[in-house]
Fold this protein.
Amino acid sequence: MRRALAGGAGLYAAALLACASPAAPSSSLTLLFLRRSPAATLGGLSWAPDPDHSRLVALDGRLRVARSFTSPRLANPVAVAALGDALLVSERTGEGVVFDTTGRPVREWEGPNLASLYAAHGTEVVAVRSPYYIPQFAAEPDTAPLIRVLDTLGRPAAGLATIHVPPVPYLAQLVNAGAVALGPDGSVYFAPLVRDEIRKYGPGGALRWTAKRGLFPTEPDPEFLPPQGRDQRDIGVRDALVNVALALGPDGRLYALGSDDSGATRLRVDVLDTAGGAILATRHLGARETAVAVDARGRLATFDADSLLGHPAGPERETFTPAFALPDVHGDTLTLARFAGKVTLVNFWASWCDPCREEFPHMAQLYRELDRKDFEIVAISDDVDRGKMAAFLREYRPPFPILVGGGRMKQVYHYRGLPYSVLLDRRGRIIERIFGFGGAAEFRSLRDTIAKEVRGP
């Protein structure tokens, strides 16, 4: 579950220097990493994903949040890169989404891998297997490219290098996942998730250099562990998590966010010379050093990401669009205008969605607890099969209105997956978006948000 607060500009940093080093640079800063995600520079701002709130944030040279935006397409953004004058965002599940700097989506693509991570420079785009999400065990042929070159529509145009096939072929996705950065000359920097290496490939795919930190005396390939416990389906893997993210700094050097402990619980930043791969400096990060920035001279500064992001101050809420006019289960048309003047939870669901089944009893309880003069729920089914929708409703007997979306809702509202909910204020503006189902704790928090909104002016 991800809850995304609606709002745009007007965010300010709190306790900016909470975790800055004693000799923090005083000149303009460029953000390299926010938590475990790479940032990008565009329009004089550092843009970074904030997956906990399903949004992108832009920070100025003093690392104050100058802008932010959410979108139904931003369920769990894990990386951002500058693609010309736009922002290319990697979703955790591998989709690539291009936004302009106002938050307007420009294009979207599914990605060439089971889950992809993207890097860009100018109008060039590359994709690798994402280190943030390994969706399934799958073998690949030894001729498969390690790095895919894409056009600006996300279509594969070429391949660079080839993958390493481990002794257990079904671990190929894991073994070949990694962090990626794209240089101004077309060079590609790749750092495998589970190997102590950082590599530079030329524009044609020739290996230019390999850098190692010397973390392990030997590095065997990952392997499956025997099932343990009662659940024999719970298969573990023995591996070492090494590389997390890569970024090119304004000083022309390569910055690698990696692990100090093989489990990625303690992080480090290594600074590399891009010409030969020499490691120039290493910074071991403390628990609260969760944002890393650099000035034009290459001096590092670290911060507490939570303090940098602060809290919304007077956010501008966007109107929920398009306004729906859909039939209910009796065939009568129900419109969004019907709920004007009430705080309203608009929920999208389908009978085949298991988390939706878990969520419905919580929505029913919430609906019964709150007064109808202040709060409503409307749940829109995206089932194509009316029979399966009807069977679901007979089983759960929801007390709130059900509308029939007919399998067209994802194309209209562009959400990432189901369940997806949008909480609206009395004027039909978005208070927050809710991605997935987060259990009872999510609904306790949601109830508090609704109660606060109801009490407001």
In short: The mean pLDDT is 90. The helical segments are 172-175, 305-309, 354-369, 386-396, 409-413, 439-455.
